[in-house]
Amino acid sequence: MAPHTMAPTRTPLFLLGVGLIGGSLLVSLLETQQYDITALVRREEQAEVLRNMGVKPLLGSLDDDEVIVEATLANDVIIHTATADHEPSVKSILTGLNRRPSSSPPAVFIHTSGTGVLVDPSDGSGNNPTTKYYIDTKPEEIDALPDDAPHRNVDLLIKRAVEEGRLGEARVAIILPPLIFGIGTGPFNRISMQVPDWVRRSIAAKQVEVIGSGISTRSHIHVSLFPPSAV
Question: Pairing relation of β-strands 11-16 and 35-41?
Answer without folding.
Answer: parallel
